[in-house]
Amino acid sequence: MTKRRFAAIVSLDVVGYSRMMQLDSKGLLAALNSIFNSVIRKNVAAHDGRVVKLLGDGAILEFHSAHDAIRCAADIQMAMRSEPRPYSFAEQINLRAGVHAGDVIVERQDLFGDAVNIAARLQAEADPGGVLFSKTVASLAGRDLGLPIQREGSRRFKNIAEPIVTLKIDFSGKEVGTHRPRQADSLNVRFCKSTDGQSLAWASVGEGEPIVKAANWIGHLELDWRNPGMAPTFELLSGRRRFVYYDARGNGLSDWEMKNISFDLMVDDLEAVFDAAEVEKAPILAISQGCAIAAAFAARRPERVSSIIMIGGYALGRAMRKSEKDKQRAEAMRAMMSAGWDDDAPSLRDLLAEVIVPSASREDLRQYAEDMRLMISPENLGRYREVLDHIDVTDILPKVQVPCLFMHCRGDRMQPIEQGRKMAAGLPNCRFVPLDSNCHTIPANDSVWPQAEREMIAFLEQA
What we know:
By secondary structure, the protein is an alpha/beta fold. It is built from 13 helices and 16 strands.
């Protein structure tokens, strides 16, 4: 009879093991022996765990407690960062760690089953020197880990039927404010109905006075937290206020069975989220076409909008501009997106990621390109782009009386800066700030991010 028990599993792996073995096999094995004895074994014992087996370039560890498993993995990685090094080798040795919990199958001293397999899959996706773990083990561990956590969104793994919601430990050393989203906690996703009965997914993170984000481009409530151009702004604002945001109709976790779509319905959707979140009046964060949506809502419901932060916006969609090239680009873009959006090789999505956030890291761009496919279907995207290309809010801009901060990158290839200038010029109470970047949305590693951060903080304090 097969014996089963619950266990929290840590899977460890040495990054670049094969290459370093070729460099100096004897020296590497001596270094790994030192790491095992002075770091791994020591921390496993401190957290009441056991070493199930060594794998040459890694190890499987078992714990009775999810809390102990995550803390042990974190302590091992922090010990590997310590000075002096806990080993002697010519190169920096990094470990990857994955953590999951569940039933395991016991055969003598060895363990098998999904808990072990998923921990190994998570380990393979972890950053060098990092710890990647599942929402399952995070929920079991509770809220008193005392570690800075970042939400990494859901991922699919080979031979694992369901996607796994993942989190990681932030070893950057940055202070985490008390109002920064607790990404170790699952988002409390809620749903509301728009005027035509469309189901819209929305969530809020942070505390304090609200700020509401208008939907833009395409998105996903969970995956946006690892979008290199969105996450920094999300973290900044949710660290100071209650940040309310939602997935546009046909996007992300909102209903993909999109019966109707129009610009007016997009404005209705923003109001539906204001109502669902019980926000009477608030500033709006608006990015790309979200700027036109926010402007239209502020003109329609001036009593509900106190100010607007606009990034990379435009008043006229491509098909409405005078340039024949813009119209041709709009048509070509819609055709390409409808035809190649869900290709396994994400060439089109790679290109879009490069256009939207060219200064993001290669890893972030690759992940963003993969995530886009999970945000919207090709059919919805074609209909969505048709509406965006025909946006025209030029006539309503003079009715927007609230203070607006309008930031636009000079080298923006998604929406040229002249479109931002034209929109800002039509807003009676707007300050336009050009940024020296080629991005459409702004990643934290871009040199202009500190300026954008300062502008947003100062604007919210004054508006």
